[in-house]
Amino acid sequence: MNDYSRIDVEKLRKAVEEEMSAAYFAGGYGAALVESLDIKNASPEEVFEAAERLGISI
Q1: What is the pTM for the complete model shown?
Q2: Is residue 4 part of a domain?
Q3: Among 3, 10, 24, 40, which residue carries the largest CB count within 10 Å?
């Protein structure tokens, strides 16, 4: 189990939002835009999962 207690969740949330927005604008991937809106209300665990899916180093 990972210890995420020292991670700034809001900073990570912003990085995830930016990555998803870039996927939408660069590649026209519409689902990324929807996901970027959902991430604003995501729990910390969901933010970590999204970051890992996107390959963002935690």
Answers
A1: 0.70
A2: no
A3: 24
